[in-house]
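Q: Here's a chain of 287 amino acids. Please give me its 3D structure as tokens.
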Amino acid sequence: MMTNMKLYFLLMIAIILSSCSGNKNHDSDDKQKVTNGRQIEQPGFQSILDSAGVEGSVLIYDFQKDVYYSNDFEWANKGKLPASTFKIANSIIALESGVVEDDSSLFKWDGKKRGFKNWEQDLIFKDAFHFSCVPCYQDVAKRIGEKRMNEYLAKFNYGNMKVDANNIDVFWLEGDSRISQFQQIEFLKRFHQSKLPISARTEKIMKRLMVIEANENYTISGKTGWSGGNGNHNGWFVGYVEAENKVTFFATNVEPKEQFNMKMFSMIRKEVTHDALKQMEIIKSRR
């Protein structure tokens, strides 16, 4: 009888512990759902992309409401090469590691042809960022080095970068590195909310560096990117809008359709993003 009672109590304890464990997992799942935010389809974004002659996804995140808006959430979840959007993370790491002092640090041109006239001159760090000077940032990456680059990327939880000694100066432009639109926004959100493990000084410099457009109604900060390996062109525009005491994050990823005029591709990434932000009345005017 005593043995049966002991077995009964042990069974009850096991059930209670199992129940508690189940509740914890349920709470964790709920928290994960809140973190991921609601997703609302925006067919109007698709009309914007169709009119522009590109395919892809515009992903907009309302931070206050914790809601994502997109025409294609499946596309937004697919990893792509970060291309020059990686200059945001690369700049942060350069400043944190001391490889670059501040946004006025000078990059001397060696006189070699670089493909773009804007790159064929001495550039301060701020201009290297805005002109998207690939050779400048390749030099920065090499000076950071494989070990430190991987350490910082792990701390930042930045996409899924594949970095080694052989690709340290190209891993964001070619190869197997990948980041999704959702991951881009998550990174930018943590940066903007001062949740990255970086100094206040680096954050201040970067927030100043990233401003693309500012007027009395709104400020847009961010970075474009373009990868084109094997003729497969993929374009980015990622960042955030500050307007009326609220912040909205965005990550646009597009590819040209057949017979697209590639001379327009550098502009179209920003254009479709602006149009989507205007459609949602996040920005109400443009310069």
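Q: Can you summarize the key feature?
A: Residues 1-35 have pLDDT under 50 and may be disordered.
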